[in-house]
Specification:
199 residues; mainly alpha; two-stranded antiparallel sheet
């Protein structure tokens, strides 16, 4: 019969246009970039004025939450890797440089929910990364953490890797793969940083 839909074809109502993957990947990279800013401590003066605001939490708490943030970001990037169709531009656009407007193919409702959950998780980690990184940097300035230069150079290397993604207009796949590697490296660096607490 004319106009009859094949039973094997997906119903139009069962699928949605995939949201922009870069809108999820970019803030996840920004969260990593926030943590890598710890590198700047190595070149900044460590003296603090008496009137400057000081973190209310203990150093051990800030560093523990920073480590947790790194672990969660590593998992978020692994989630991106497990869902290349949704987050890595898999298909015709895989070689396109990162930019907004790279809509993927149609996805089912469950996959669309996965995207929204990733957005929520990334947003939470961006807030946690910002707060915990600031407190960790204050701890270094106050002498509560006395780490060797090599650790700060490690944060700087991670920062360089993320900056090159932007400078070179890397593909979404390159952004996700690099983000996963940087998240793992930052976890190691934060764990090292924790061992140099003096308080």
């Amino acid at each position: 019969m004319a106009g009859k839909r094949n039973s094997e074809e997906p119903a139009e109502a069962d699928t949605r246009i995939a949201p922009d993957p870069f809108a999820a990947v970019l803030p996840a990279i920004a969260a990593l970039g926030t943590i890598t800013s710890i590198a700047s401590i190595n070149w900044a003066a460590r003296e603090r004025g008496s009137e400057q605001a000081r973190p209310k939490r203990k150093t051990v708490t800030a560093l523990r939450e920073l480590e947790t943030c790194c672990l969660h970001l590593a998992e978020i990037f692994r989630r991106f890797q497990r869902n290349p169709k949704l987050f890595m531009g898999e298909g015709a656009q895989v070689s396109s440089p990162l930019k907004f407007g790279m809509h993927g193919p149609r996805v089912d409702t469950d996959t669309a929910k996965l995207y929204q959950q990733a957005i929520n998780d990334v947003a939470s980690m961006l807030v946690l990364a910002s707060q915990s990184t600031f407190e960790a940097m204050c701890a270094v300035e106050d002498g509560a953490v006395d780490a060797p230069e090599d650790i700060f150079f490690g944060f700087g290397d991670c920062q360089d890797r993320l900056n090159k993604l932007i400078q070179n207009r890397a593909t979404l796949k390159a952004c996700v793969d690099t983000g996963a590697e940087v998240a793992e490296r930052l976890t190691e660096l934060v764990r090292d940083l924790k061992t140099y607490r003096t308080d």
